[in-house]
Design a protein that fits this description.
- About 55% of the residues lie in helices and about 15% in strands.
- The protein is built from 10 helices and 10 strands.
- The strands form 3 sheets. Strands 1-3-6-8-10 form a 5-stranded parallel beta sheet, sandwiched between helices.
Length: about 240
């Protein structure tokens, strides 16, 4: 599956909906056993959540958008498919979250291709299920530091901390992802799927139990005047950079 939402694969409501529908179709078609998630945009995997969906809208829209973000995570994290992230560009925030849901992550060796949950830099807070996805990958202390500081890791740093499993030259990302996939395909599906669920069930169950509260927290938080102002300032800076 190639992410395609120019210019930076922001996770708009439309893209989130298409991803969920696409993944559901693949899950239901038993001829598919795995998915390589990558980008067709040179230099960017995904810039993460679409800030325009969270700025200057009404609470009903914020709720609809956040439900779609939750739904994508709930489709990816416990997926019965083997998910390999072929990260061929920068992957901050929501882009990082998507890669964290995968079973294996391959990142292109380019210092510009940073990865991490940098929400605090925007004045917003990563929800508990973002945190849990990171803690389950790199451990508690490394996550605590990374989340508070909004760290974006270079490929070498991401590999060292365990955020990605392999760093390879840019032109080898896809071939490496395919090679990794074939190794995972060699494991009997039933045994692998049950093991994956065993490892991830507590995290998924916690998210489902708290889903409605998380939705309300998000809508209340993002609707605050101070948060809206912070997002507007950040979006203005992005516009000036593009200009």
């Amino acid at each position: 599956m190639k992410l395609r939402n120019p210019p930076v694969n922001s996770l708009s409501l439309e893209l989130l909906t298409e991803l969920v529908i696409g993944l559901e179709k693949l899950e239901n078609d038993k001829t598919f056993r795995g998915v390589i998630l990558t980008s067709d945009r040179p230099g960017v995997f995904s810039a993460g959540l679409d800030l325009t969906e969270m700025c200057g809208r009404n609470p009903a829209h914020y709720a609809e958008y956040w439900k779609a973000v939750q739904e994508l995570w709930l489709r990816l994290y416990p997926s019965s498919l083997v998910l390999v992230a072929a990260i061929n560009g920068a992957s901050p925030a929501g882009g990082c979250l998507m890669s964290l849901t995968c079973d294996y992550r391959v990142l292109a060796d380019n210092p510009k291709y940073v990865i991490g949950l940098n929400e605090t830099l925007l004045g917003i807070v990563a929800p508990f299920w973002f945190r849990d996805s990171l803690v389950n990958t790199i451990g508690h202390r490394a996550s605590e530091r990374a989340l508070q500081l909004g760290l974006l890791f270079s490929p070498a740093e991401a590999l060292q901390v365990g955020m990605v499993d392999k760093v390879v030259p840019e032109d080898q990302v896809q071939s490496t992802a395919l090679s990794v996939m074939s190794r995972w395909m060699a494991i009997p599906d039933h045994a692998r799927q049950l093991t994956k669920i065993m490892m991830r069930k507590a995290t998924v169950d916690h998210m489902i139990k708290q889903r409605e509260a998380d939705l309300q927290n998000f809508v209340n938080f993002i609707s605050r005047d101070s948060i809206q102002k912070s997002l507007q300032v950040y979006l203005e800076k992005l516009k000036q950079k593009k200009g």
